Structures are given as structure tokens and as C-alpha cells.
């Protein structure tokens, strides 16, 4: 890990804290909105059929946003949950992820997705 760029030097930053799961971030049950249900149906329809190998996995995600103010991590959990459903894998087996945000024109938003087995 290269760490944070400070002038011409890179500083690796580590904090000793257990990462919090999104499952522990809210009280009470969460329910899918109608908008999310439609998004899930659309993604499941649009994603091509193929079989992935055995874990562990490395993923590449590229999100084309017309609004660059969107957080890079907002669509990650939703899209991974949908791809798990489509390709019958568990995202706990993903050990490396590369996420990219790209500016695109309004109406031309997209998602690029690749999953690789790490041997």
C-alpha cells in the first residue's frame, strides 16, 4: 500500500480499529424501496449469464456518473448484492477490489464489472 501522498513522500496510515459492517450501522430492519427493487430486476436482466470460478475473487467496478458529487462507495454494496444473486457467489470471498468513478453525460450512466478468480 502506498499510503497518503505528502509532498514527494508517501505515508502509510493505519488505525487499529475493527471495521464496522453495514449490518451494524442502523437500528431496526431495513426494507428494499420500490426503486431498489426495480434496479435489482433491471440489473439481473442486463447482466450476462456466465459461470465464475472458485474463490477467492478480485473485482473491478467502474461507475459512470453524470454527477461527480456522488460518493464512490454508494453503489458498491447494492451492485455486489445483485451480482451475488446473479452469479451465485458470496461477497465474503472477495479479497481485492478496484473501484473507479468516471464522469459521463447525463443519461449515459453505466456500470462496468469484472470478477476474477485469484489463483
CATH topology of the domain at 31-46 and 54-119: 60s Ribosomal Protein L30, Chain: A
Shape: globular
- Strand proportion: 25-35%
Global Rg: 17 Å
Mean pLDDT: 85
* Neighbour order of strands in the largest sheet: 4-3-5
Instruction: Give me the secondary-structure category.
Output: alpha+beta
Please trace the helix and strand order, writing H or E for each element: EEHEHEE
Q: Number of DSSP strands?
A: 5
Intertermini distance: 21 Å
In the CATH hierarchy, the architecture of the domain at 31-46 and 54-119 is 2-Layer Sandwich
CATH class category of the domain at 31-46 and 54-119: Alpha Beta
At the fourth level of CATH, the homologous superfamily of the domain at 31-46 and 54-119 is Holliday junction resolvase RusA
Task: Give a verbal description of the structure.
This protein has 119 residues and is an alpha+beta fold. The protein has a domain at 31-46 and 54-119: 60s Ribosomal Protein L30, Chain: A (2-Layer Sandwich). Helices cover 23% and strands 28% of the residues. The chain contains 2 helices and 5 strands. It has helices at 34-46, 74-87, and strands spanning 4-6, 9-11, 57-65, 94-103, 110-117. A 3-stranded mixed beta sheet has the order 4-3-5, with no helix packed on it. Strands 1-2 form a two-stranded antiparallel ribbon. Strand 1 (4-6) and strand 2 (9-11) form a beta hairpin. The longest helix has 14 residues, at 74-87. The chain is globular, with a radius of gyration of 17 Å.
Amino acid at each position: 500500500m502506498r499510503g497518503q501522498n505528502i509532498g514527494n513522500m508517501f505515508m502509510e496510515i493505519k488505525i487499529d480499529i475493527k471495521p464496522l459492517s453495514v449490518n451494524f450501522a442502523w437500528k431496526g430492519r431495513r426494507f428494499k424501496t420500490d426503486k431498489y427493487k426495480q434496479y435489482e430486476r433491471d440489473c439481473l436482466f442486463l447482466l450476462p449469464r456466465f459461470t465464475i470460478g472458485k474463490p477467492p475473487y478480485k473485482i473491478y467496478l467502474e461507475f459512470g456518473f453524470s454527477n461527480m458529487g456522488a460518493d464512490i462507495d454508494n453503489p458498491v454494496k447494492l451492485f455486489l448484492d445483485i451480482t451475488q444473486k446473479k452469479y451465485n457467489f458470496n461477497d465474503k470471498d472477495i479479497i481485492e477490489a478496484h473501484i473507479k468513478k468516471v464522469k459521463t453525460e447525463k443519461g449515459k450512466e453505466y456500470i462496468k464489472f469484472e470478477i476474477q478468480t485469484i489463483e
